[in-house]
Amino acid sequence: MLASRSASKQRLLACIIQVTNRHSNGRGAALMPSEQLRGLAAHAFRLRRKVFLSIKVEDLRDCTPKVPVVYRLGGVEDLTRFSDCFYGTYEDSNQYSLERLKAGDWLVLGELNGEVVFAGWVMFGKIDMGVRDLFDVDSDCVAAYRLFTRPDLRGNKLGPAYFAFLRSKLYARGIRRMVAWRELRNAESRKLKIGFTHIGIVWHLRILRRSFFWMPASVVASLRSG
Ligand SMILES: CC(C)(COP(=O)(O)OP(=O)(O)OC[C@H]1O[C@@H](n2cnc3c(N)ncnc32)[C@H](O)[C@@H]1OP(=O)(O)O)[C@@H](O)C(=O)NCCC(=O)NCCS
Q: How far apart are CA 214 and CA 194, in angstroms?
């Protein structure tokens, strides 16, 4: 059972997790000194609040997208078809995608007239709290992450239809619960209506490429025991 918000606050600070980010420029590009400085400034100090969410797989609802998008599992060969366009702003994204596919994550693609217009990822038994900051969750639990609908098709229910597509596939694999997080300030992801339960807020402090997470004990308990 989920703890109330006030109980969560009392138990706040019960768990502090420190994870070192192994951060690199995956494209092997040589950075100019000024770019290095800009990059350093951007990474020097950043504080984010992440809303952690949970839902039973059986509670994922049916949804038909407003445009005839077809969903399927993707693989390494698909990455070049959308990765730069979808994740172009993220350093190291292609390398990360390759690593996650190798680790067994699912990449789900939504296609319209043969073009990739949606991508979403599923991680088994772990949740990535940043990038490569993995946290164990229950073995019958998956984490949904990196959802992206092509900007011109947002509002067409491609996000909800993706979760509907996952329901039977996950259930067949013995998966009973799905967790996720979204940035508190991300207005677009807040509008996505899937029926997730809010399980708490995790603070993510990033200082000089190192990540520190401040995770209430109630969130840890919820991620690990449902
Ligand atoms: C979050 C995201 C995947 C939602 O996907 P989606 O396919 O647009 O989902 P929906 O169609 O259900 O839209 C969700 C809400 O956003 C609104 N919306 C957001 N952008 C919109 C746009 N450009 N046009 C119309 N509606 C838009 C919709 O109206 C809808 O609200 P409603 O149900 O009250 O109508 C998508 O906005 C996205 O890719 N955002 C950028 C990446 C991101 O933030 N990912 C989530 C990380 S947790």
A: 26
- Domain chopping of the chain, boundaries: 55-180
Residue 134: pLDDT band by 50, 70, 90 thresholds?
Answer: very high
pLDDT tens sequence across 39-61: 666 667 889 999 999 999 999 99
Question: Is residue 157 lining ligand 1, measured as CB closer than 6 Å?
Answer: yes
According to the CATH classification, is domain 55-180 in 1.10.287.110?
Answer: no
> Which of 188, 196, 202 has the most ligand 1 atoms within 8 A of CB, as the residue to mutate?
188
Q: At residue 33, does pLDDT exceed 70?
A: no
Global pTM reads: 0.83
* 106-112, strands of its sheet edge to edge: 16-20, 210-214, 197-207, 45-56, 177-183, 141-149, 115-124, 106-112, 70-74
Atom of ligand 1 nearest to the CA of 156: 11
Other Cβ atoms less than 10 A from the Cβ of 195: the count is: 12
